């Protein structure tokens, strides 16, 4: 999708595609852990991999929410253009934080688990690390990141309402309102989905109730599909493709109509020199 549509080849589009790719990888590892794994080493690898990918997913979501809030300060309905060098430099710095921070968390979690013997992991699955490690190295950082994303979206809603109230041109206000609401709505839906899933997972680790367990399973099973649908619908990727396809078809139809000899004749005739 990133290769097909040039509209996504900016910083926000690249961030969104990275977020969706991370979600896809988390879904694959989640499916591997269904029903549990008999090998303890494999089970530990799955749990730490899910911890790493979920933290990366939340970090990329925070970057997307921050860029969405910053984009609301501009009067253009599209993200501000950057040079290729500026975009590569900023994306490299963001990637260092979004991939490096979770890697440090997972390394500390693994080091703590090997230095201090802890109780055995859950027998029914390999999706969670040990309770103390989960709360310290995933539960607390995840709630901080998600609450930050939620606060950014609340600020984005308030800033969007205020900026639209100051706009005096009706057509420009309608255009800005449609584009900005799509961006804010997308980030809000992604934040709500991940926040609900992590709350259910945290409730299961703390209490062990089956309701929280079922809620976590259901949301994690459909989160990839829900996030992909939100991204494709609210980013209007399909409508962009439809407009280009219609423009291409209309240009082809115009050329086919002008291929007759009558339309190619000079009318009126050019003046002789």
Automatic annotation (TrEMBL):
InterPro entries: GPCR_LN-TM7 (IPR053231)
Alphabetical keyword list: Membrane, Transmembrane, Transmembrane helix
TM region(s), chain numbering: 12-32, 52-70, 91-113, 133-154, 190-216, 222-241
UniProt cross-references to Gene3D superfamilies, sorted A to Z: Rhodopsin 7-helix transmembrane proteins
Stated name of the protein: G-protein coupled receptors family 2 profile 2 domain-containing protein
Organism, as annotated: Apolygus lucorum (Small green plant bug)
């Amino acid at each position: 999708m990133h290769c097909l549509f040039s509209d996504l080849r900016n910083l926000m589009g690249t961030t969104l595609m990275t977020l969706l790719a991370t979600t896809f990888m988390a879904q694959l590892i989640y499916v591997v852990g269904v029903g549990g794994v008999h090998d303890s080493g494999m089970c530990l690898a799955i749990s730490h991999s899910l911890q790493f990918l979920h933290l990366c997913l939340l970090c990329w979501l925070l970057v997307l929410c921050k860029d969405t809030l910053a984009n609301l300060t501009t009067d253009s309905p599209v993200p501000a253009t950057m040079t290729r060098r500026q975009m590569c430099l900023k994306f490299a710095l963001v990637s260092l934080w979004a991939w490096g921070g979770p890697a440090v968390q997972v390394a500390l979690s693994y080091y703590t688990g090997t230095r201090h013997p802890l109780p055995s992991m859950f027998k029914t699955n390999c999706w969670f690390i040990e309770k103390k490690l989960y709360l310290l190295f995933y539960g607390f950082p995840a709630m901080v990141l998600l609450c930050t994303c939620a606060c950014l979206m609340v600020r984005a809603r308030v800033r969007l309402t205020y900026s639209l109230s100051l706009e005096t041109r009706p057509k420009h206000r309608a255009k800005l309102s449609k584009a900005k609401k799509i961006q804010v709505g997308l980030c809000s839906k992604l934040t709500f989905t991940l926040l609900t899933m992590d709350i259910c997972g945290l409730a299961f680790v703390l209490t062990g109730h089956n309701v929280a367990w079922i809620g976590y399973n259901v949301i994690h099973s459909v989160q990839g599909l829900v996030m992909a649908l939100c991204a494709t619908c609210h980013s209007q990727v399909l409508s962009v493709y439809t407009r280009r396809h219609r423009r291409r078809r209309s240009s082809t139809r115009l050329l086919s109509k002008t291929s007759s000899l009558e339309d190619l004749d000079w009318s009126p005739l050019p003046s002789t020199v």
